[in-house]
Amino acid sequence: MNRAFRKYLTDTEADLVEQTKPKNLEGLDEDALGDLHDKVRRASRKYRKLHRRQASGQVIRDASRGAASAKNQRSAVKAEVFEDALARVSRSLARAAKDSAATLKAERLSMARKESSSPGQTSPQAKSAGPGRRPAKKRSPATKKRHASTLAKGQRRQAKRDLG
To answer: Assuming Cys at both sites, which of 49, 73, 92, 130 could form a disulfide with 25, CB separation 3.0 to 4.6 Å?
Structure first.
């Protein structure tokens, strides 16, 4: 955070922005990064909304966007600071999620290799889908509704043709 922006932030806001510095993000796990991301996103949203509201109200009073933006600096600076902080946390969270996914994938693959190497046992997937068979389709309520809607549409078209 630039020292010039520090004068616009309260102590708690400055602490929150400080937590988003790269050196402070290094030791955090995915859950802690997610919590921090939520906090920073809330603050960012708050100041973006505040800035837009103040600016729109000022434009009406001043009848000029240029004059209105000059008077609305504090919330604009806060919004910018929190946007930058949010971007830092988002990148760290994405990296942590990618690392976590890679670790889980490696664990799954190693488990699958162990299961396939044991003699006399077949995996559950091999039993359910034999040669020439498709796995059973699972029907969710949304799928059932879409299917019924399609059938009804066809019946309406046919009835229209029959009457017409």
So the answer is: 92
* Secondary structure letter of residue 9 according to DSSP: S
Check: CB of residue 86 under 8 Å from CB of residue 94. no
Task: Give the DSSP letter string of 36-48.
Answer: HHHHHHHHHHHHH
Helical ranges in the chain per DSSP H: 3-6, 11-19, 22-25, 30-62, 65-70, 73-117, 124-128, 141-163
Kindly report the pTM of this predicted structure: 0.60
CA angle centred on 118, ends 103 and 127, rounded to 5°: 90
pLDDT (tens place) for every residue of the chain, 164 residues total: 556 677 888 889 989 999 999 999 998 889 999 999 999 999 999 999 988 888 877 777 777 766 666 667 888 888 899 999 999 999 999 999 999 999 999 999 998 888 877 665 555 554 555 567 777 778 888 888 998 999 999 999 998 888 87
Q: 81 φ, ψ to 5°?
A: -60, -45
Write down the domain spans for the chain.
Answer: 1-114
Residues 6+ apart with CB under 8 A from 74: 8
